[in-house]
Amino acid sequence: MTDSPGTAPGTEGGWTAFAEDYDVDPAELGGAADGDPDWAEDAVPMPVVAVVGRPNVGKSTLVNRLIGRREAVVQDVPGVTRDRVAYDALWNGRKFTVVDTGGWERDARGRAAAIAAQAEIAMATADAVMLVVDAVVGATDTEIAVARVLQRGGKPVIVVANKVDDERTEADAAALWSLGLGQPYPVSALHGRGSGDLLDAVLEVLPEAPPDRVGGSGGPRRVALVGRPNVGKSSLLNKLTREDRAVVDAVAGTTVDPIDSLVELDDEVWRFVDTAGLRRRVAHASGAEYYASLRTQSAIESAEVAVVLLDAAEVISEQDQRIISMVVEAGRALVIAFNKWDLLDEDRRLQLESEIDRELARVRWAPRVNVSAHTGRSVDRLAPALRTSLAGWEQRIPTGRLNSWLGELMAATPPPVRSGKQPKVLFATQAGTKPPRFVLFTTGFLEPSYRRFIERRLREDFGFVGSPIGVSVRVKEKRSKR
After folding, report:
1. Is 389 within 8 Å of 466 (Cβ atoms)?
2. pTM to 2 decimal places
């Protein structure tokens, strides 16, 4: 039966001729094994330098200059950075970690006190500290207080006199010798002036990184924690890490930069990335919110699995669905977690079940977990759900089994007739994983409804729990005879 799935590669010319007919790379037919994911890194600890200082002295701008890319969110208002955020840096062949912190203020209260506490933790856990001072303003009472703390800490300290844009302001930088922390380095974080000398000084005080481990693992699985503002992402991260890793406040939008944290769940280490709450479409955002949205999108794309956190006490909104769509379109495994489950009464639970059936029908394949970041209820159920989604994300069906299954499906439910002809599927292959992608080689166009039918049956018969699936069609075109 020459038109049945699985027979085309056996025709004259084999795989090469079949690929030429469809103008496709032969490697795609065999479903070549995917290479190592981009997130795979050696789990080798690197030396850490913490960047601290008053609000709005240019710490995040300097961090972007040191790491050579624009990752830290920058805006010309104080208090944009609130958590301690780590970035990988490379200079003269040596790797190290730069930790950006929120503004440190004396006698801070409320959210400012929580931000200052994060900066103090960064100073305590770093190998060296970089104190950033606005050279134009000079050393204030806050810098003098920080200098006293750093002098008692006994760690190497580099004083950075920022905003020295030309030679006329270098005299202002020299005045910072009064802090008693050694030579101040005049730089312009905005223009890059003096940044090379500063990086050389950083490498001199940082310890050598340990040698790479031989035969090390690919590192912890990377999990993006995403959702609308104020659904409890930072609270959940703090509960998972068992420390105040992220600043939590009742005001929505507290988190701006993505925050990486290693979390041990169910005897396995995961790398969780807390992200800024997505309030609206990226194109409609502005200022710090715009850049925070871009960082969140980047965090989703660099992750393997995303946990979309929803507020169980509130109605599932259009923004919730848009965030889920972002994860699906990025091709990442998905877990849906309903937070604040401890606040629900019986009426709300019944109402929520109806909302899930109606609003989340297109992602019924995603595992659901009901948690409470406040009490810690069922947070241990996240690890099994993550493993289930990642297993579906990496699942592969052997080509022979796939074509045998597809032949039975076509015989039982043929594709609809189009323009008086019924298309036939000659062959099918799983072109890749992470997420699973299938290619159908046909004699004619397949209706979108029929492709969705195939996807639904793939899930029913093979699983793929927690992972989006891609089904594409390659139509064989008639070739003129020579």
Report:
1. yes
2. 0.62
